[in-house]
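Researcher: Let's do a round of design. I'm pasting the structure tokens now; please hold your answer until I've finished.
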């Protein structure tokens, strides 16, 4: 932990102390507590205002899937980035991720579309994935019906569980996707990577908590290996991929293993590893602003190369 920024170390200690106290008191996690936790840290630590000139709340065309469209330069035909938020398939929303979506639109100069896909445990696998598939299929019609100026070049991005959703779409519908951005992605529902042992507790996302998330998400006798993007068939036209990983993240090895598979198949990819960061650091921006600025720069550079 010595390499972590001091601000992150101090906050992480208080976070871990609170977790330890909850365990002493016998407080078990609930979806409501998890959702409140992600919302609270994001609201507390992603505070710098970003003005986007055009922001529209609507629904994905022909569906009941809420979405928010961010256009940083109305009137200009910009490429499109469909963004799937993280949160263990249980937490997160358009509102929680609004400041991050704004930053993606501002830095990348893309029309960003963020959706509220259905969450577990109320809506278990594969309902949220179905929402993401439908959103990709209808994103052009959605923008047309809203009179949005855009260029029909569609890239997709996701952080954490949103990375799993984005990677799954890249495998299933590669023809419609220009580029793929995976931000500390969760890609292995079988929990088979060594980093899950090395960083199993003490770094925000804990292995035991990941198992709990997945048990809420997969409520039937689902084949978790088949559902995992890490083990999915990679098409030869898999989109070029940017991968961001963090050095104190228990799921970092999943991203690295995915990258090796892409490289072996000759699929264009780029990897940036922030060795002094934890999982979900974009939600902790005020504590690690330099790392966040660097990450948004990497995304901008990749999408606009």
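Researcher: That's everything. Go ahead.
Model: Designed sequence:
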């Amino acid at each position: 932990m010595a390499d972590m920024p001091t601000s992150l170390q101090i906050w992480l200690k208080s976070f871990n102390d609170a977790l330890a106290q909850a365990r002493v008191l016998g407080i078990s996690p609930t979806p409501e507590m998890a959702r409140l936790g992600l919302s609270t840290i994001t609201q507390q630590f992603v505070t710098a205002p970003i003005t986007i000139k055009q922001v529209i709340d609507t629904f994905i065309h022909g569906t009941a899937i809420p979405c928010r469209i961010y256009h940083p330069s109305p009137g200009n035909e910009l490429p499109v980035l469909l963004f799937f938020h993280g949160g263990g398939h249980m937490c997160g929303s358009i509102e929680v991720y609004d400041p991050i979506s704004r930053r993606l639109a501002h830095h990348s100069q893309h029309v960003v579309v963020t959706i509220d896909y259905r969450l577990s445990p109320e809506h278990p696998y594969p309902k949220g994935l179905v929402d993401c598939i439908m959103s990709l299929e209808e994103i052009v019609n959605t923008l047309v019906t809203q009179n949005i100026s855009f260029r029909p070049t569609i890239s997709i991005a996701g952080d954490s569980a949103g990375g799993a959703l984005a990677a799954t779409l890249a495998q299933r519908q590669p023809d419609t996707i220009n580029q793929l951005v995976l931000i500390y992605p969760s890609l292995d529902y079988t929990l088979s990577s060594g980093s899950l042992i090395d960083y199993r507790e003490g770094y925000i996302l804990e292995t035991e908590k990941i198992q709990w998330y997945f048990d809420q998400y997969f409520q039937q006798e689902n084949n978790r290996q088949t559902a995992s993007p890490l083990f999915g068939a990679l098409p030869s036209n898999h989109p070029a991929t940017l991968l961001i990983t963090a050095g104190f993240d228990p799921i970092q090895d999943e991203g690295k293993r995915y990258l090796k598979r892409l490289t072996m198949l000759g699929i264009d990819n780029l990897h940036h590893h922030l060795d002094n960061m934890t999982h979900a650091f974009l939600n902790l921006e005020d504590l690690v602003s330099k790392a966040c600025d660097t990450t948004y720069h990497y995304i901008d550079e990749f999408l606009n190369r």
